[in-house]
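This part of the workshop introduces the protein records we will be handling. The question running through the whole workshop is how a given chain folds. To make this concrete, we reproduce a full record directly below:
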Amino acid sequence: MLMDVSPRISLTSQGPEFSRIVYGMWRLNEWSLSVCERQELIEAALELGVTSFDHADIYGGYQSEELFGEALAAAPHLRKHMQLVSKCGIKLISSRRPEHRLKSYDTSFSHIVASAESSLRALRTEYLDLLLIHRPDPLMDADEVARAFMVLRQEGKVRHFGVSNFSPAQFSLLQDRLAANGMTLVTNQVECSLLHLAPVYDGTFDQAQQLKCAPILWSPLAGGSIFTDSGPVAKRIRESLTRIGEQLGESATTVLMAWLLALPCQPLPIVGSRRLDVLRESVRACQLAITKDHWFELLLSAQGSEVP
């Protein structure tokens, strides 16, 4: 019998500890939930052992963090039971940010610090457990980013730092600058699913395993495309998921998440659905050990050919 509770895992040997399944809040503004309903959703996730919540300043047009913060303000005792992640570095054109003239990236010292402080206010919290640079910035000065991270840590506003969507070389550059200040990156949040296998082959997961730095995975269900797309690749994947799921007595979602969790870099998939059954099925995957034959069957269904 599988246990419907997400285990905890250290992103690095020095921490921090996160739930193996992360709850993504990027669509929170679309769910049209009252403050009470948002609080109930958070509590339901915590009961499943899903204690890590993924945010970004831009989510929901700069509104999702505020919506989460309202729920947290209504139940402040919940804060000590969770880990809050936010991201910064993307500037969107928005009525909530009238000073932005065009969509661009900004990883300057002032923007990182201001974005982190804005997220703290929106989330109604005194600190972030983890702050990520959202996208690689071609004008990123790694020393300036490291200085911003150091100041935020010294002021107690952010406890840990990472990146999102960085290549191994970009990760190494910033890691080098942080090491000079006695700091380290604790994760690289990247896209990965059976419809997006790039980090499996481009060195991202090899680097994560080398550094023992667990990656966080966004869009592990390919935004639902694995279950809805009419193309031949998604169809092959669904057929394999159904066949393996019937053999194991588990849902396709559970099997798919177990495929990701089997990667030796110990990834933490993000689930971004308001449907608790999707969250529950993802949590069940933490206790499901699929065979190598099953793992490669799904890989081959995604690639459309056998391995070389």
Observations:
- The first helix runs from residue 35 to 47.
- The chain is about 45% helix and 15% strand.
